[in-house]
Design a protein that fits this description.
single chain; about 260 residues; alpha/beta; 2-enoyl-CoA Hydratase, Chain A, domain 1; three-stranded mixed beta sheet
Length: about 260
């Protein structure tokens, strides 16, 4: 089944709801569809804030690095295609609120962190699990995560690869609000509406100031991450990491 992105606009708040069952894996196509719709909303004066959410129990399980063609690229470097689309998301000029109902893992964490705010259900789980796959972090997380929660917390997340509950990362600033699973979308919309009642030109200018230079820094991070991932992709540890994740067991790494 191909990914689906649904766009609705009510008042000054748009909702982008994506679905790629069963785990909402991120693909080149999904990121392109999200970016295309954000491009449309960037030009729509009625839209002041966007809520990004997903269907099902998982927010986004990241990119599928296990299945052949899991990222959905058309060329010989699907990771580069994936990041080209990811970079487009950071070009959006209006505030974004992510509603995170379940696991936000790897690129799914990157997608959540791309947003300005995160409203999470108690069931939400956050993980930068790249090292468990013998891989390097991506989706510009090496830049965006320390910027959001600080160098030490980001280092802990990325070097352990552990999963964290919403309540654990709330005081870190990774989560801004917690809302019950059944009320999550409404909770995200409430925050979006608190922002959307304000003057749209002032919102855009203030956000642009607070994120000044971010697009360039994200682009540079993606270049570095891609290069590191290409160095690690042919290693024995990466192959073992992929097997371990698929088999739900700890990896047995050898350093080559």
């Amino acid at each position: 089944m191909t990914a689906d992105v649904r766009l609705t606009l009510s008042g000054h708040v748009a909702e982008l709801i994506f679905s790629n069952p069963p785990s909402n894996h991120a693909t080149v196509g999904l990121l392109r569809d999200l970016a295309d719709r954000l491009d449309v909303l960037d030009r729509d004066p009625d839209c002041r804030v966007v809520v990004i959410a997903s269907e099902g129990k998982v927010f986004c399980a990241g990119g599928d690095l296990v299945s052949p063609g899991g990222l959905g690229g058309a060329g010989d470097d699907p990771v580069r295609e994936f990041y080209d689309q990811a970079e487009r998301l950071f070009a959006f000029g209006k505030p974004i609120v992510a509603a995170v109902q379940g696991a936000a893992v790897g690129a799914g964490l990157g997608l959540a962190v791309m947003a300005d705010f995160r409203v999470a259900a108690p069931e939400a789980r956050f993980a930068a699990n790249f090292v468990k796959m013998g891989f390097h972090p991506g989706f510009a997380l090496s830049y965006t995560l320390p910027r959001l929660i600080g160098q030490q917390r980001a280092a802990e997340m990325m070097l352990t690869g552990n999963r964290y509950k919403a309540e654990e990362v709330l005081p870190w600033g990774l989560v801004d609000r917690i809302a019950a699973f059944s009320f999550l979308r409404q909770g995200a919309r409430l925050l979006a509406e608190e922002i959307a009642v304000n003057a749209p030109l002032a919102l855009a200018e203030t956000r642009a100031t607070m994120r000044a230079g971010m697009q360039e820094d994200v682009r540079a991070a993606l270049v570095r991450e891609h290069a590191a991932q290409m160095r690690l992709r042919p290693t024995e540890d990466h192959a073992e990491g992929l097997r371990a994740v698929a088999e739900r067991r700890p990896g047995q790494f050898v350093g080559r």
